[in-house]
Amino acid sequence: MIVWINGAFGAGKTTAARELIDLIPNSTLFDPELVGAGLRYVLPQKRLDDVGDFQDLPIWRRLVVDTAAALLAELGGVLVVPMTLLRQEYRDEVFGGLAARRIPVHHVLLSPDETILRARIAGRPVPDTPDGDQRVRQWAYDRIEPYRAALGWITADAHVIDTSRIDPHETARRIAAAVHSGAAAACEIVQTPEPTAETVAAGVLLFDDEDRVLLVDPTYKPGWEFPGGVVERGEPPARAGMREVAEELGLELADVPRLLVVDWEAPRAPRFGGLRLLFDGGRLPDGDERRIRLPGPELRDWRFVGEQEAAHLLPPARYERLRWALRARERGTVLNLEAGIPVG
Questions:
Q1: Distances (CA, A) of 135 to 39, 106, 114, 123, 131
Q2: How many CA atoms, within 13 angstroms, populate the side-chain half-sphere of residue 316?
């Protein structure tokens, strides 16, 4: 189990986390800042210069998940993680990766009044460098506005504790009580277990009367996706796609969808790759859009998009798969792809 303590710089995350491990038996402190610090020694400076924050590095997000999972496998018990997460897609990726390893995450937000937050930043010790005082404090002040902008999704996801007028020990006591009572329940994020070998996945393309394709926004990973999922053992791929459409959208397809593309995805660590199939689910009948019901723990949103908009929402490999599936649909054929490129 993980207790993830979120909040702005100066909210008291780390001091509360240190107090919390004394209140929760068999708990360990894991600060993902250490992962970011380590990457500064192993990544080329040019790569570090490409990003404004180490959280923008995909390798940081993967290593946080892998390190947390490894620590729990080694030590067991509870991992206390003080780390600001303001971008919802990064939360989805990190918490989704943990959910794939069957690790529940209890998300807590420490939320002092802004005036108190600014006062804490002003009084926080800074590095002993000529411009350390001004630079570090300005860095913290600059992140208050992104924090306020993110409060909408964070407060909907996390258990909020107002730390304006309580000390770190009391903060930790309230976190422990909230986790114990269930007030800070484990995040309802759904993710299938990490594969241990190549998989077969089936996606279904559904269209509106303008031939725009329906995409869904998963809560557990970044980027948009087609309705669909991994084909279970002994299950026909087209039927798997129909099952996923019913589970994800609440829509029962009357006919078995027609195959459009078979795409072989190469294994690329840490992923195993496999076959990715896209089927043509046809146009939704009038009124079916109003029957769409998303499973909240798994999907956040859906929309119909044209090909150009899809290019901005889908990861590159998924977009190439969609692009060729649309061509196959236009031609009434089936295309065989390898890593998104037609062969044969």
A1: 22, 33, 20, 14, 6
A2: 2
Q: What gap in Å lies between CA 84 and CA 74, rounded to an integer?
A: 25
Distance, C-alpha 272 to centroid of its chain: 19
Does 156 share its domain with 247?
Answer: no
Query: Which tens digits make up the pLDDT trace of 159-191?
Result: 999 998 899 999 999 999 999 998 888 887 765
- Helix-strand-coil split of the chain, %, nearest 5: 40, 20, 35
Specify the number of domains making up the chain.
Answer: 2
Domain assignment present for 237:
yes
Give residue 192's pLDDT band: very low, low, confident or very high (50, 70, 90).
low
Domain boundary among 116, 147, 181: 181
The residue-averaged pLDDT of 55-71 equals 93
Q: Is residue 107 within a helix (H) or strand (E), and if so which, with residue range?
A: strand 105-110
- Structural domain contains residue 269: yes
Q: Is residue 186 part of a domain?
A: no
Q: Which residue range forms the structural domain that includes residue 122? A: 2-181
268 contacts 261 by C-beta, under 8 angstroms? no
Q: Is the pLDDT of residue 71 over 60?
A: yes
The letter for the amino acid at 183 is A
Backbone angles phi, psi at 283, to 5 degrees: -85, 140
Q: Which of 230, 222, 232, 315 is nearest to 274 (CA)?
A: 230
Q: What is d(CA 274, CA 276) in angstroms, rounded to the nearest whole number?
A: 7
297-311: per-residue pLDDT in tens? 678 889 999 999 999
Among 62, 51, 4, residue whose Cα is nearest residue 31: 4
Find the range with the poorest average confidence among 26-35, 99-108, 165-174, 195-204.
Answer: 195-204
